[in-house]
Structure formats: C-alpha cells, structure tokens
Design brief:
Layout: H1 2-37, H2 44-51, H3 55-62, H4 65-90, H5 95-112, H6 114-126, H7 128-152, H8 160-180, H9 186-201
Length: 210
C-alpha cells in the first residue's frame, strides 16, 4: 500500500517533468524553424520534425500554431531579459561598468544568434503586443539599474519621468550597435558610446560651485 502511494504521489511530478521537457523541446524547435524560415513560413510539420515528435503533440501542448509561435516569442524575449538580469549579480556598484558588461554581452549574443535579431524585427510587425512586453521588461531592468546608480552616486539625480525616458533611450541605442559592431572592435565602439552617455548621465565630478 505504501509503495503504491509513493508511486501515485510521484507520478504527477514525473509526468509534469516529462511535459516540461517536451514543451521545451518543441519551443526550441520552433525557435530554430522560425529563425531559419521566418515566422510566416515556420510550419508545424517542420517544427515537429525538428522536435522529433508528432504534429498532434504540438497541438496537445499549445493548441494551435499561432499559440505555439506566441509562446516561442515570449520565451525568446524572456530568456534574453534573464540573461541581462543575471549580469546584476556579477557586477555591482558603478552603473556604467554594469551597462558596459550588458552591452558587450548583447554584442556577443547578436554575433552568436544573428537570426534571432531578424526574428525580433519580424515580431515587432507580426506580434506588436508581445514585442512591447519584451521592451517593457528591458526598460524596467534599465530603470532599476539607473535608480541603483543614482543611489550609489555614479548617476546624477533625476526624477522618475526622466529615469523612464533615459531607460527607453538606452534600450533604443542597443539596436543601432548591432549595425556598428565589427569583430575585434566591439569594446572600442561600446566605450565610445559609453563616453557619450556618461557625460549626460554621470554625476558631476569636482564641482567647485563656480
């Protein structure tokens, strides 16, 4: 009796883990298919083949092709936001040092996943609501970093409205870096950009009141 109870108790956890793995595999396959063929041409048969599963399994887990692609888009944007947020644990203190680390991490990501950048451009047109969700998450992260910078003195004081505006500007500037960064020159370009924003955001140094 006790053994059967333990088996029954364990079944949902095992079943959930299997479903989670299957969903993750399908989402990874959807991302690969959409990155290679674009959102409009990504097919359920192509995704199923990449995931080594039946087409019916895709419908079981996601209901429809549209819902599967929306889940894939949300996962893509969430995973990248989480990657940026993880830098906060590695770099503390100066806002500009943390922002520099984030920009270089972004450059590496773009270089390793150029198709994902093209996919995000497509998402902006096809699923503008999900695109705005991703941008909002990014802006919130940078707003939090700006507040921390103000608190530690590396960023000049500013009101909430300006913090939000500056965060949007910083997010937008990253997209232009995609076209400017060349292999071997990323630090040079990122440092030039940081020199520009430091003069606009940095706390004044050696102010003698004159």
């Amino acid at each position: 009796m006790g053994d059967r109870s333990r088996v029954r108790a364990g079944q949902p956890r095992g079943g959930y883990a299997k479903r989670h793995r299957t969903r993750a595999s399908i989402l990874d396959a959807a991302l690969a298919e959409a990155s290679e063929r674009g959102l409009h041409h990504a097919s359920v048969t192509g995704i199923a083949a990449r995931a080594n599963t039946a087409v019916g399994n895709l419908h079981y887990h996601f209901g429809s092709r549209a819902e599967l692609l929306r889940a894939m888009i949300r996962k893509l944007m969430t995973d990248f936001s989480a990657r940026l947020a993880a830098l906060d644990a590695e770099h503390t203190g100066d806002f500009f040092e943390l922002h520099r680390a984030g920009l270089l991490a972004y450059v590496d990501y773009v270089r390793d996943n150029p198709a994902h950048v093209r996919l995000v451009d497509e998402i902006k047109i096809v699923e503008p609501g999900l695109y705005r969700e991703g941008i909002t998450t990014w802006v919130q992260l940078l707003s939090s970093r700006l507040r921390d910078g103000i608190a530690n003195g590396s960023v000049r004081p500013m009101q909430e409205a300006e913090i939000a505006a500056q965060a949007y500007f910083l997010v937008g500037a990253r997209r232009f870096l995609e076209d400017l960064v060349e292999v071997g020159r990323e630090e040079e370009i990122v440092d030039a950009y940081l020199g520009l924003i430091r003069n606009g955001l940095g706390a004044p140094m050696g102010d003698d009141g004159g």
